[in-house]
Amino acid sequence: MKLEEKFNASGFVIRGFSEIPELQMLLFGIFLLLYIMIICGNLTIIVLIWKNVHLHTPMYFFLVNLSFIDIASISNILPKLLSMLCTKIKTISFIGCITQMHVFLSLSATEFFLLAAMAYDRYVAICHPLHYVALIGLKQCARFSFASWFWGGLAPTGQTVLVSKLYFCINNNINHFFCDLNPMLQIACTDTSVFNILSYIEGPVIAIAPFMLTLISYVFIINAILKIKSTRGQHKAFSTCTAHLTCVIIFYGTILFMYMRPKSKFLPKLDKYFSLLYIVFVPMLNPIIYSLKNEDIRKVLIKTK
């Protein structure tokens, strides 16, 4: 049986945010503006780092990768949402929905791994500065980045395959603004208990392990900073971590709330709006945070002006 034949040919219906016609164009304008801001902000970071040789360091190499993740993540979701708001056609094919879900989960997993690699970079820079070049060179960064993208792409494969085998019967309305795993499981008419087992297996690898590596890195970083005698030295050392730490807190705070809780606590309407924090505002805030809290980026921006 082909994937498309599991239910009606129109695939899924994405319910979105509002059924009120008058709000559709307003939402279209808001999301279009946000999309342009996110693309421009992250492209600015990429171009600034690319054009300034003194920024060709491991930390900024990781930052370029983070910006690419943000661009890919938002481009996976917002163009389709904008199309639905503009044309009022809210259908998406089964394969298109599965693909969007897989890309979303893959990029989320990649960001978990990449943020852990960035935390390790800050740990080596502050705790082992004399060995920084030996431990964190550009070749090593390339390996870390490749591993993040590779394993991030593979991580949700099991879930994607299982979702592709689910039956959705008559109800194919997804109460969300894109194809996410939890809303799709809510409308499945077959047993989804296997996803709970898979979550217990994949969760520690995809989310908990990178989180623990990040946490341990910052424990050592804070300990090293506290040993610095001068307040100025402490501030200077900590300032190199504030941008990354802020991004980590925002990223983990939003995504853990969305997924690391009992299924019984899943509230479609609340989750739909809260997802905006992760889907839209995290990619928008990342370049702003690095621009405001990173001295090198600030200097380059001022020089460019």
From TrEMBL:
CDD domains: 7tmA_OR. Keywords: Cell membrane, G-protein coupled receptor, Membrane, Olfaction, Receptor, Sensory transduction, Transducer, Transmembrane, Transmembrane helix. It is a multi-pass membrane protein. InterPro entries: GPCR_Rhodpsn, GPCR_Rhodpsn_7TM, Olfact_rcpt, Olfactory_GPCR. GO terms for molecular function: G protein-coupled receptor activity; olfactory receptor activity. SUPFAM superfamilies: Family A G protein-coupled receptor-like. Residues 41-290 form the G-protein coupled receptors family 1 profile domain. The chain crosses the membrane at residues 25-50, 62-82, 94-120, 205-226, 238-261, 273-292. GO terms for cellular component: plasma membrane. PROSITE patterns: G_PROTEIN_RECEP_F1_1 (PS00237), G_PROTEIN_RECEP_F1_2 (PS50262). Signal peptide: none annotated. It is found in: Cell membrane. This is Olfactory receptor. It comes from Eleutherodactylus coqui.
